[in-house]
Amino acid sequence: MSLQRVLTGITTSGTPHLGNYVGAVRPTVRASRQPDTQNFYFLADYHALIKTGGDPVRVQRSTLEIAATWLACGLDPEKVTFYRQSDIPEIPELTWLLTCVTGKGLLNRAHAYKAAVDKNTAAGTDPDSDVTAGLFMYPVLMAADILMFNAHQVPVGRDQIQHIEMARDIASSFNHLYGEHFTLPAAAIEEHVATLPGLDGRKMSKSYDNTIPLFAPRGQLKKLIMGILTDSRAPGEPKDTEGSALFQIYQAFASAEETAALARAYDEGIAWGEAKQVLFERLDREIAPMREVYDQLIQDPARIEKTLQHGAGKARTIATPFTARLRHAVGLRSLQTLSAGPATKAAKPAAPAFKQYREKDGQFYFKLVDAQGKLLLQSTGFAAPRDAAQAIARLQQQGETALDGLRDQVSLLGLEAEIITALRHFAEETH
Asked: N or C: which end of the chain has fewer CB within 10 A?
């Protein structure tokens, strides 16, 4: 059985804070330990260049801090592929290949570009004022990150689905012109991404300057927690857990029993200073062991560099031969292979394909067609695109084994032998 490839990128544009840890780092590290997955984690330092305002020191420092954070939080570089984006020269090359098949209209619809244009229009300036080509082409670079490793799933929040949809569109355009080279990725939608309030009660964000650095020194951590905004209720007065930033942060770290105990203390009128001390002690208990590892790593950047170079080596064992295939596919070839006679366009190899779509009933469906377009298999409706994508991934990776487990969710419209042959095509493609 082939492994499911899952890819996650982390932009190196800032210092990780508690919100990053709860919403991204902690759940992703846990997910990296799941069996039957091949996980790719990369530091998106190319991405950072359009977000840091020409601050090279910030990019370098953030790369160090984020790499140290993930390692300190338990990411095992021996069990995953952990690399820095800029260490993979095949990524920018693939970006150019994909740029050449990407319609400008598609990029016009990218959320980041549209937001910049809308902001300029509202301000009465030129729509493209201060919009760099990097910002405009950003979706193609993101597609290259995903498609280079033929990721099956990319965990994203619902507001980031467009990134995956555009990667699929770009991959489809390339496959249509040059044959089937890219797996169409699916968004693994994180419906319940945990968010933390910041010091002022708003969402913890660098944009609001209300963050608590994840690995702040113990004394600074306590000082920041003591500064969390609370209401004016005196000791002895019952306090509301609803809307309490202090309580919400505690809940994200505490067990159900610990959370219930603090809720009772709120009802009994715990003093704010005492509640903040409870929060500090609970946070420090979880963070302190990781902070010790983090501090050691920060003081030894050569160790982190070695880890990233090791990850880059693993990544390039995939990227280098794959890029060679793509170069050949588009015609970037040795002239020694050129045959005499007039040039002819290579025939596109026909292959079976899965088609995922949404019907008017709001449900998500997929079908399997053979190389000639004959319908072989039709699914029932799924409530979410992620569920349909996961069923497709199972069929692609497990073939007839998965087919047996999905009998209630698919209808076989072709001969079973034809369907099994088509499914084996996908299994072979992933090896």
From this structure: C
